[in-house]
Amino acid sequence: MESEQLYHRGYCRNSYNSIASASSDEELLDGAGVIMDFHTTEDDNLLDGDAASPGSNYAMSNGGGAPSSTTHLLDFLEEPIPGVGTYDDFHTIDWVREKCKDRERHRKINSKKKESAWEFTKSLYDAWSGWLVVTLTGLASGALAGLIDIAADWMNDLKEGVCLSAMWFNHEQCCWTSNETTFAERDKCPQWKSWAELILGQAEGPGSYIMNYFMYIYWALSFAFLAVCLVKVFAPYACGSGIPEIKTILSGFIIRGYLGKWTLMIKTITLVLAVASGLSLGKEGPLVHVACCCGNIFSYLFPKYSKNEAKKRETLWRSFFAALVAAFVLRSINPFGNSRLVLFYVEYHTPWYLFELIPFILLGVFGGLWGAFFIRANIAWCRRRKSTRFGKYPVLEVILVAAITAVFAFPNPYTRQNTSELIKELFTDCGPLESSQLCQYRSQMNGSKAFSDNPNRPAGPGVYAAMWQLCLALVFKIIMTIFTFGLKVPSGLFIPSMAIGAIAGRIVGIAMEQLAYYHHDWFLFKEWCEVGADCITPGLYAMVGAAACLGGVTRMTVSLVVIVFELTGGLEYIVPLMAAVMTSKWVGDAFGREGIYESHIRLNGYPFLDAKEEFTHTTLAREVMRPRRSDPPLAVLTQDDLTVEELQATINETSYNGFPVIVSKESQRLVGFALRRDITIAIENARRKQEGIMLNSRVYFTQHAPTLPADSPRPLKLRSILDMSPFTVTDHTPMEIVVDIFRKLGLRQCLVTHNGRLLGIITKKDILRHMAQMANQDPESIMFN
Amino acid sequence: MESEQLYHRGYCRNSYNSIASASSDEELLDGAGVIMDFHTTEDDNLLDGDAASPGSNYAMSNGGGAPSSTTHLLDFLEEPIPGVGTYDDFHTIDWVREKCKDRERHRKINSKKKESAWEFTKSLYDAWSGWLVVTLTGLASGALAGLIDIAADWMNDLKEGVCLSAMWFNHEQCCWTSNETTFAERDKCPQWKSWAELILGQAEGPGSYIMNYFMYIYWALSFAFLAVCLVKVFAPYACGSGIPEIKTILSGFIIRGYLGKWTLMIKTITLVLAVASGLSLGKEGPLVHVACCCGNIFSYLFPKYSKNEAKKRETLWRSFFAALVAAFVLRSINPFGNSRLVLFYVEYHTPWYLFELIPFILLGVFGGLWGAFFIRANIAWCRRRKSTRFGKYPVLEVILVAAITAVFAFPNPYTRQNTSELIKELFTDCGPLESSQLCQYRSQMNGSKAFSDNPNRPAGPGVYAAMWQLCLALVFKIIMTIFTFGLKVPSGLFIPSMAIGAIAGRIVGIAMEQLAYYHHDWFLFKEWCEVGADCITPGLYAMVGAAACLGGVTRMTVSLVVIVFELTGGLEYIVPLMAAVMTSKWVGDAFGREGIYESHIRLNGYPFLDAKEEFTHTTLAREVMRPRRSDPPLAVLTQDDLTVEELQATINETSYNGFPVIVSKESQRLVGFALRRDITIAIENARRKQEGIMLNSRVYFTQHAPTLPADSPRPLKLRSILDMSPFTVTDHTPMEIVVDIFRKLGLRQCLVTHNGRLLGIITKKDILRHMAQMANQDPESIMFN
């Protein structure tokens, strides 16, 4: 029975109180005084119930002992108070409390499971619910990812034309079904009609070009308008990539509705529209958000997760990986896609040479510079949007950006096509079957074939044209991505970053190739690059460049390389990738250590304590804690001499989220910590349910009620909402240790003592403010609690 | 100048004291009392120097302020006391203190680096010293691994014969140089002479067989004898795999000499001897030990690592990975080996089918059962060795085990050969070039060829014989491995575990193959296994079995699979491997959650707090802390009324490693914590250097000296060795939270308070004892501090 009561309590750390207090009075009498004399000093309250019983090693076994005369008061308090132990919106969770609550639940299930077959089944169900959530999430988000893929492809092609044989086919599928298609011209078939053909009836000529151009812009603007309107009206949280917010949520912050069903629905729909509108954005980041929404929604089916914020976050992590796996699996069984398990499968014929590390490292430098530049420019633009009137017209902004993108993208084939397709083309090496413009080399045996199977050839006119177009595409992508990331539509950054790197890499690769062809007797090439031999692989350069740019923007190193080489399936190119990504990270870090996501977290003022960033200052806890010198004294509660009225006055006068409870104003010795929300709920609850609670009722946090005059109203016991094991540090503790404790234990607040006396309090927000101050930033940018 | 002093201090946490105390007296006077009145209670010592100055936010800036009359006393104490902040053998390190020391050092270098070009160079050197250590370690341990490989191969072949053309060639190299060797009989050549040929002059017949048998046993015993003698005489720490000890050291324990040069030298030599003696052991575990020794030795070249136990451990982690990489690279450029980057490179021709998951999962069950059985049997045997007279004759034991191993291993070709070779053979699929006995299938087109290229054939007599021999080898390996792991020679467990799994897997694989051949019309096989088609790959079964057994013994899941499939280069078989390894872990965990290394850690009583194991009991800190009910009171020091004599008496009467310092016996309010070792060193140092320190000198931990009678001797200030930010928890804190704090922050001890008063202390050892007690084990098995 006791364990049941324990389970229902809101507070886990307090559920031990009843066990501890069960060490009966006799024990107290001979237990105290073993170490020290408790009753020699004035300030020691004699009613301080469960004072030291250091020998209470066996307290649990003689637990049943009579709680004497206070039984009638305890009865009420053994009941759980609804709402105690939950959180407000935009507040930080207490990881220790949440984990503790879960262990309590687990113990209860474990102790019950031997009772009956039904309880055993329930315990099995509980143990497997984690797998269930992950499986469901994986399936759901994998299916959504597939749907988004297909829908975005179809709508993207809608900008160019329609399939007459079947409206729901995209360009590629339309021509698959046609039997008039030859392999060389696989994307041309009579069933697929461009808008000019449909409307004007002619496929060639300036008129039809302008018609196609116009329709392209029309559709792009329509999609963009629809996307931003849906986001604005139905789910404002659906905009952006969502990764900064998810990082903050996973670190223990509450944003209600951010992972809800509305966000999921609207994000899914608008992501398709945003991708199809041709804006310079990707869908990988928003897909993470979609997966986390699925995880959150499914977790509500299982009390294990829905009632525990820490466990829910565990599930979100797992969901994210499950979704990735599911998406890959879905892609592999996708009847329309290629059958590889990887996103961009590449096979290169030639190894790389040591000398090539120089261009690879240069690509790394480019990636780092681009990353640093992008982060600064994008943050500056987003700050402008936040602070000026301009930010009040998100719809107009999206339409404007979409219009500029469409106008400049259409004439250049490399910007008109789907960005994933572009990356794939850039990664691919030129082989005999490649009909791309990038592979139009002049054949060495002049005549017979248009291009040679043997690489290391002089570039043909197609390659030169492609180089120009790629340069323009590079400039275009760089500018547009800066203005696109942060718009009020779902937008990811992986694909645009990779595209920029891939374009730069391919350009460098082709340049190297031509250099090696025309100067193969240079001492640099002489050793390993014979005439007519295949020695430079431009596709590999594109891959290295993509990794470097992705690294520069997001600042993840090893994990990034792993992702990239999983995407490409190339295990042999780990050294070039590593070299480029490490360089890009070092170069980027020289301009600022934060990645784009961390920068956006800071821009938005989320309370995120970065695990990577070292705290290197020599400040002490006393310098960071509140109250500061000029502040009013710390709001504290005494354990047994407040009335309900006084307590409410203290709560109303301050805006703190919690209050330390002390023995007495004179001694300042700390007893515990009570949260504002819990106190409010408990008083409210007592008023409703418990008779005789009045404004002048005494409130006490001790085990036993204080001795009161005969005519005083019934007292209110609040021990069950008191956290009796608050974290404390001394005022001399260096802040680096305090920061470490907050990070590793996931604290929400910590009390500061000096020689056993309460001195102040440090919250997560205080730490973030202090860190901002030390970095010469505005401490008021930290907004939430 | 101040920063220099800070750097030289032994204690990092106290280096802040001088900053804090720099907030001059004026500040103290108006700073205190902002929050609370400090002078109202009796027990508040007025000399409690740096009481609350909560507004000292700018303390650092006005730091230069006069330290008034105490200057002559401070002068001495600003000097570093040599030895303070180091550790005794078999003690636990304080991670917080070590990390803090390193940040202090880092800050000093950072502040200095702008002073001159030389300082800037030094800072660069410091920043890169981590990479240097890792590179050096990687190279050295890679080279050692290569040497051990070559030497062990040569000595292993010495048991069978010698190469007449060149003594230093092993069997394989000897026959490579011979031009009389055909491909089919590549291991037979005239230059290689077996002992029978050399001594008796004949290669065939029972006489020569007995001669070879005798020489095999003779060499095996010689090697084993030499190995155990070297270990016993020169470096007792060189025995075993070393992984349990390294895990403990990495978790923050001091074992002097365990990673020293003697251990390295002897371990390298004896590892070769032990492997060559034919005992059932591998060299992977000891190689980890060798790599860590290299890392430790090289770290002494860099003060960043040699002077900081936490940083040293970081380096050891990195060294371990660097060594693995280096070993692989060395292997890839090894002129004698194959050119693959992986240990066992396998390519299979056929995919696996869903139905095959059943035998794979059965192999997982076998792996789990074997792991659980092995751990129990081996631990029981090792405990017997520790507790009985038998353990006193390690040399005899090794010789006995080596003799039994040699006698039973020689007749069976699968036990006679090198275990790595055996695993390779078992992993390899039967192809047209395979001459192994395992591939002697009867050809389907009877006659012409001895075996067919097309698998799924009836087994020939060779296969039947091999099956019998494999069964015997399995039983032999299982028994011998139990008795071998724990002998006083270097011994790893990876290769024997994998061998057992590979044998079992291959047996199951061949059985499945024959089943599919003879019953290909069963409904199970009908769908996917046509007549004459290649549907079962016995080599894959061997691989899956090996992974399952390795998982069962060591209980690592995902990381294990990654290792295994890196070893084999097979990315497509991740699902079978995962299924088997997960099953093996579940089955194994049902019999006990500890892997073999954790079991050995517990057997040896090392203070290792496992991060995986959940603490699930409901005990409170007050039940675990010392002093217990029956104990004498906690030994504490008061901050300003002890004499040197009293202090020494307290130290001599107790055996504690540290003492809490309190304001006064009456108030029991905690000031800080002082380590026994530091107090002893400081008193010793003061006696030598500081004049006027006598037995009746007053010792004080406060900022200012207490007021003393005029004729009293000069007092001794010990503030610099006082840890002023000890970790505290309340007596009501659940042990699960305490355990979490110890794990995550790497604490050595934690003080327990109740309402601001010191109540007791919890050390890492107390926690381990408590956990042992809760698991119904002998708490006295935890031996070290």
How are the elements arranged and paired?
2 copies of one chain form a homodimer.
Chain A: H1 2-8, H2 17-21, H3 25-31, H4 71-78, H5 95-112, H6 117-158, E1 161-163, H7 171-177, E2 192-194, H8 195-199, H9 206-234, H10 243-250, H11 261-276, H12 284-299, H13 303-306, H14 309-333, H15 357-387, H16 394-409, H17 413-416, H18 419-427, H19 461-484, H20 494-518, H21 523-526, H22 538-554, H23 558-568, H24 574-591, H25 596-604, H26 621-624, E3 637-638, E4 642-643, H27 644-653, E5 658-662, E6 670-675, H28 676-689, E7 698-700, E8 716-717, E9 728-730, H29 735-745, E10 749-754, E11 757-763, H30 764-774
Parallel strand pairs in A: 3-5, 7-8, 9-10
Antiparallel strand pairs in A: 1-2, 4-7, 5-6, 10-11
Structure description:
The structure is a homodimer of 785-residue chains. With 785 residues, chain A is mainly alpha-helical. The first copy, chain A, folds into four domains: 2-110, no CATH class; 140-333, no CATH class; 354-604, Clc chloride channel (Orthogonal Bundle), CATH 1.10.3080.10; 621-781, CBS-domain (Roll). In chain A, 53% of the residues lie in helices and 5% in strands. The first copy, chain A, is built from 30 helices and eleven strands. The first copy, chain A, has a three-stranded mixed sheet with strand order 3-5-6. In chain A, a hairpin with a 7-residue loop joins β5 and β6. In chain A, α11 (261-276) runs antiparallel to α12 (284-299). The longest helix of chain A is centred in the N-terminal third of the chain and has 42 residues, at 117-158. The radius of gyration of chain A is 33 Å and the shape is elongated. Residues 1-77, 334-342 and 444-455 of chain A have low confidence and may be disordered. Chains A and B meet through α2, α5, α26, β6 and β9 of A and α2, α5, α26, β6 and β9 of B. Chains A, B: It is found in: Cell membrane; Early endosome membrane; Late endosome membrane; Lysosome membrane.
